[in-house]
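Final report, closing paragraph on structural work. Over the funding period we assembled a curated collection of sequence-structure pairs, and we close with a single example.
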Amino acid sequence: MDYSVKSMAGAALACIALPALAYVATPNPAAPFPPSEMIYPGTSATRAFIAADPYVLNIEGQPITAPLQGKARSYDFGGDIPFVNPATKAPDPNVLQAWDPTTRLGTNLSGGLILNKGLTDRVTKMADGSLMVRHVAGDGLLGGTGRSSLVSFAVPPRTHVRWEMVVAFGEASGANQWALTKYDTHPVLFWELKSPNTTTPPLSAVVDTDQYAPSKLCIKFQVKGGKALTLTSLPTVHNLPVATNIPIVVEAYLDEREPADGGKGRIKLTVNGVLVADLTGPTLSRGPNFHFTNFSAYSYKDTVTVDNTRAVFFRQARLLVLP
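Its predicted structure, as stored:
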């Protein structure tokens, strides 16, 4: 694979220049993550997490029960895995959201409204065995922006987790061809850990045209957890091809606390098997609300009718919660 990343050392220096709450490079990337403080029956080092009642989460030190609507929920969403779990007869996604061209409304499906057909050819399973999340040129807005998303049920804090993705942006030709627009005019957020606690996700990943190689893409990772007042940009991965599977692993210890307060937060990123960043610091937002994973095509700068079709194909999209 022909791509490059900014050095971890450069990223660490940029972070150290920030105030005392900055993220710092992990001295030894080979060091193991802390073990999860909360152990669930669906915890596994090799299989996607399955949450089941009673699903009690540690929210800022308090045990809070997260709703699962009476069903076990798998956190494996990519590939050809159906939205409705054949074992439970219930959907594993929490919400599907997209513009509906028939009703001409932004639409959110949840519970029994989620069927295996997905949502209006915007959040759907493809014949090639992938989850497609897209918005289409001419679509209206959802929440004031161009957005389609699959949203998980709540993600458990104070745990060691790993998101495993294999993702392609657009197709080489046809209706889902990816338009290479000017850098930073139409960026697309495709993954995030999100909470109503704040408008800025504590962890997120954005794809954009590569400003140094305009026929290619770049991926930018960002973090803003705990008491952080500013968004920290992690090293950018450059020179990535469109319409090509890209393996991404986001490993993290989920913790809203600062290190000085006993926090164990850490984020370790690999793209195409190459280490991009390994930082310590808060990885959750502070507040009483749950966090959810979004797999998206979210053009957050498109606040008028969307001009470009953005189709994101997830061959793999799963969350593991490790012991």
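Residues 1-21 have pLDDT under 50 and may be disordered. The chain has one domain: 4-322. We thank the funder for supporting this effort.
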